Amino acid sequence: MVCFKQKYLVVTVLLFSFIFCLPNFACAASIRTVRVGYVPLSGYMNYDANGYRSGYGYEYLQELADYAGWKYEYIEGTWADSLVRLKSGQIDLLIGLADSPVRRREYDFSEASFGLNYAVLSVRAADDMYTSDDYHSLDGLTVGMLQGSFRNSAFEEFSKTHGFSIIPKLYPDEKSLIEALQMENINAIGLNNLRRSDAERIVASFAPLPFYAAVKKGDAGLLKELNDAMMELRLDDPQIESRLYQKYYVSNGPAALILSPEEKTYLRDKEKLVVIITQDQRPYSYFINADHKGIVGDLMKRFSKDIGIPLVYIQAKNEVEAVELLQQGKADIICDFIQDYGIAEHSGIKITFPYLELQYTALSKRGYLTDKPKVACQEGRFFNQIYVDKNYAKDDIQYYPTLEDCLDAVETGRADVTYLNSYTAQEILSESKYRNLQATLNPEFSHKVSMGINIDQNPILIKLLNREINHLGLAQVSHIINNNTLLAKRKMTMLDYVYENPVQIIVGSVLFFGTVILLLLGLLYMRKEHLAHVNKLAYDDELTGLKNLRWFEENMPTLIRENIGKKYAVISFDINRFDVINECYGRELGKKILRHIGIVLRRKESEDHIAVRSQGAHFICLLVYENREIFESDIKVLEQQFSVYEDPNTFIRLSVKLGIYLLQDNKMPITEAIDYAETACYEVKNSANSFMFFDERIKAELILHREIENHMEQALQNAEFEVYYQPKFNMQNNHMMGAEALVRWNSSHNGFLNPAQFIGVFEDNGFIIQLDFYVLEEVCKFINEQLIAGQHVVPISVNQSRLHLSEKDYLKKLKKLVQRYNIPAGSIELELTETAFADLQDVAESKAIFAAVKNLGFLTSMDDFGSGYSSLMLLNAISLDVLKLDRSFLAASEDSARTRDILEKIIEMGHKLKMQVICEGVETKEQANMLLSVNCLFAQGFLYARPMPQAKFKEFMEEQLAMF
User: Fold this and answer.
1) Global pTM?
2) How many Cα neighbours within 13 Å face the side chain of 187?
3) Distance separating alpha carbons of residues 287 and 778, to the nearest angstrom
4) Which of 721, 676, 720 is nearest to 701 (CA)?
5) What is the pLDDT of residue 834?
6) Is 187 helix (H, G, I), strand (E, B) or coil?
7) What is d(CA 280, CA 315) in angstroms, rounded to the nearest whole number?
8) What pLDDT is stored for residue 537 in this prediction?
9) Are 107 and 82 in contact (CB under 8 A)?
10) What are the distances in angstroms from CA 651 to CA 122, 581, 593, 618, 744?
């Protein structure tokens, strides 16, 4: 019985141990703990005065951990101890080893080193088709290399290892290489990292020499994580060695901001990022009415704009409170955290690359010196730990809640000195309140500034922040600093002026008191005039005499809030085809027309009718209205006043399109109301109406468009786009003679979508290029499968956007598809709409493109012929295989003998040009008979077959071909 109880107790303990360990297992799955040999060496791996780890090797490992998803357990020992421990498996990783055949028998070495140079493959900065996250994108690169370089073989080995091929091309010197890249004779340059060009972008870097990291022999998994992390870190921070060694300079130019699919997904899933601000020091970082301003504020706005996600700010009194907020999960990022890995590790924070350097200066009373000064410090600042605590006795340090308290303590003599960053010190000393303070001539201390995230935060965020910091570049950061310091306009009071000019004021007061008064009045007047002039430049539109959009956005919210009882409408309008007027009549006349618009609007100007010029020929108005019916009449009158421009030498009819938004809430942001009005203005341009109100339909379309753009990339990856086929028929014998490939979107978010709902959006944002090639490849796959199975195929037409005609590698992509799927000539017909042909400017270039397409075996056709944009000159210049008549032409021909005659002549013209003529949208037998009567033999439409999925089309095609 005792034995049974003992066994029961053991089983119970083991069971509870297993249950309580489950969370640890979950954590371990996401973050791997790596045991690292820590060899104390000065400047490499050591401890600072506070007991925090520091050194080149330590900092390198900390940045590496962010990319590998690791955390470390450091095991201290000598080099000899650490080598033995690595060999026996007591530690996992050791850095700083030189490579040798002997050591390679005992350890596995990293591919990349921790110093010196490495091989680099770079492309033109604008060539965004090549990415570091997808080596398949590099396949077929022509790489320029130096003749006789020992690294040339390394590039070929690297490409083979990563599954892509390169075409090497040798040049005698670097100058020839760069010229060849600029002239696009090569796609990439293969050299090393000891060079930097803002005109290039690195897509691969490898083969470093000579110091390495080593793992236990045979630990392939850890070695792969190490190599992948080191490679990605170097791609994101090519200057890591120069930062740590301070040996190589960092380029001022920005790095390209190219986000990986994983990072894009992360941003799509995030609605916002919550950022903690720990400083309230003008001009470094401060708030005005919840608007983050200053150097850090402008940097954060640029960051938000670059990655396309809004930032929400919360303020902390100091760094200690900021760390607590971050650890509590109340925010994602600390905006400005001291670049100190020891403090970061102790605080449970990961830090980014530095983006700024802060210099600190001491402020004390003028002419007051003491051997043992009392120091006023702001509570909760890490600066106190790394500088003040080291240089002052504990009894000489006084702590205050705010910086202002510290300054007041020095001003009143309770303390002798306080420290603050040099940007803020310069601002403080310009204020009359602190005229008795002085700063040290040289900065006494400096540290770099990074952003910080919780150590348990998704590691994608730290990589994303690092990419943005690289993208900013030193030049952009310097520009932002200058805008907030040297170029910033400081408000100067009269007391400030007196303090800055004491001698002149005193002498002038004694000698010429009356003159001084006149001078002061004159100065005040000049200042007023200057401010008025600046205000005019900032808020007035010189050409039209109206105010500008900035003035409108700043002043209208107050006006609307103060008149709650009034109903307001925001109108956005512009002059149609104003660019054509400028081209035909000259820019001077265009300016006269804009002045004329300004005069008309100024005549009506009142508190209830305010108009501004936004830009170009675009204007924004704020009007008070009583009811919609009267308001619409007023709009028509306003529109009529803009309908004609006339002077002694010119008479021009003008057309304006107006978008209107009726404010539903007087507290609504004016910028949002403007956006709605401009959206309505954009919509009305595609209609026959002259004005349009923003309504729920337009809002729903906006929401749908946003949904479409948010999910289109993922939808393509998830194969949500489906290819449908609509058969084409010979109307003489009812034989199927071809088909058209059409696309449908079976969206996991929005359900089944027709092309009319998303094709226009894709045309606007350029995604149509990817979708067209997706559909074309699906058709190629289908034809290839049919041929391999010994089944019949018919020619299939595939729509192509006009954007392809300006696509750089369009023909190259077509050729790859033909070769990959072995497509016989004449199997696929590429359809371009008539509007695409109308967009062609260079006929010779267009002729060459279509000739090349035909040489690849594709048929070509003009779709929607007769829709109103045709160019008969292009039909003469470019040889096409098929002419596809628009369904609107067919409908018009049924009711008009004249249109039918035109249709007959067009068909006759097509036949004489040796083009197959087909009509789409045939729905009735009468339409088919009419087409046959005018010698149009081929048709596509519901009369014969509706669009169908691929599987059903395959059955349909086999049935049709079996019948005949």
Assistant:
1) 0.42
2) 18
3) 54
4) 676
5) 56
6) coil
7) 9
8) 66
9) no
10) 57, 12, 11, 21, 49
Rounded Cα–Cα distance for residues 438 and 407 (Å)? 11
Could you tell me if 313 and 324 are in contact, meaning their C-beta atoms sit under 8 angstroms apart? no
Cα separations (Å) of 346 from 132, 318, 652? 34, 17, 73
CB-side exposure of 256: number of CA atoms within 13 Å?
22
Residues of the chain with pLDDT under 70: 1-30, 41-43, 98, 116-118, 132-133, 148-151, 192-197, 208-209, 241-242, 245-258, 279, 368-369, 441-442, 486-505, 512, 527-537, 834-843, 866-874, 964
**DSSP code of residue 690:** S
Cβ atoms of 451 and 352 closer than 8 Å: yes
Q: Is residue 437 within 8 Å of residue 418, measured between CB atoms?
A: no
At 311 the three-state DSSP class reads strand
- Dig out the tokens for 594 from the structure: 């804009």
Q: Return the beta strands (E) in 827-899 as ranges.
A: 828-833, 859-865, 882-885
618-625, strands of its sheet edge to edge:
547-548, 609-615, 618-625, 567-575, 656-662, 691-693
Cα distances (angstroms) measured from residue 332 to each of 27, 458, 719: 19, 10, 33
As to burial, measured by CB atoms within 10 angstroms (0-12 exposed, 13-18 middle, 19+ buried), residue 651 is exposed
In sequence order, what DSSP letters do the residues of 700-726 get, joined into one string?
A: HHHHHHHHHHHHHHHHHHTT-EEEEEE
Residue 871 in contact with residue 837, Cβ under 8 Å? yes
Q: Which of 64, 76, 88, 351 is nearest to 213 (CA)?
A: 64
Asked whether the beta carbons of 811 and 852 are under 8 A apart, the reply is yes
Let me know: does 486 contact 381? Beta carbons within 8 Å. no
Task: Tell me the pairing of strands 32-38 and 70-76.
Answer: parallel
Supply the pLDDT for residue 250.
45
3-state secondary structure string across 561-603? HHCCCCEEEEEEEEECCHHHHHHHHCHHHHHHHHHHHHHHHHH
Please report where in the chains the tokens 């039918």 appear, as a residue: 900
Pairing between β-strand 119-124 and β-strand 188-192 as defined by DSSP bridges: antiparallel
The predicted structure's pLDDT at residue 493: 55
Output the 3-class SS for 319-381: HHHHHHHHHCCCCCEEEEEECCHHHHHHCCEEECCCCEEEEEEEEEECCCCCCCCCEEEECCC
Spatial neighbors of 888 by CB under 8 A, at least 6 apart, are: 866, 867
Count the neighbouring beta carbons within 10 Å of the beta carbon of residue 393. 9
| DSSP 8-state code for residue 77 | -
In three-state secondary structure terms, 276 is strand
Q: How many degrees, rounded to 5, is the angle at CA 647 between CA 642 and CA 653?
A: 40
User: For residues 632 and 612, is the Cβ–Cβ distance under 8 A?
Assistant: no
The answer to whether the CB of 693 falls within 8 A of the CB of 660 is: yes
200-206 sheet: strands from edge to edge: 166-171, 141-146, 188-192, 119-124, 200-206
Element (H, E) at 609: strand 609-615
Our CA dihedral for 88, 94, 100, 104, rounded to 10 degrees, sits at: 40
**Radius of gyration for the chain, computed over Cα atoms and rounded to the nearest angstrom:** 36
Our CA angle for 586, 587, 589, nearest 5°, is 75
Q: How much is the pLDDT for 245?
A: 61
Say if strands 547-548 and 349-351 run parallel, antiparallel, or are unpaired.
Answer: unpaired
Q: How many CB atoms lie within 10 A of CB 900?
A: 18
E strand or H helix at 277? strand 273-277
Cα separation values, 717 from 163, 234, 429, Å: 21, 29, 59
**Residue 796 in contact with residue 740, Cβ under 8 Å?**
yes
Greatest Cα-to-Cα distance within the chain, rounded to the nearest angstrom: 120
- Which residues sit opposite 421 in a β-bridge? 360
Residue 146 host element (H or E): strand 141-146
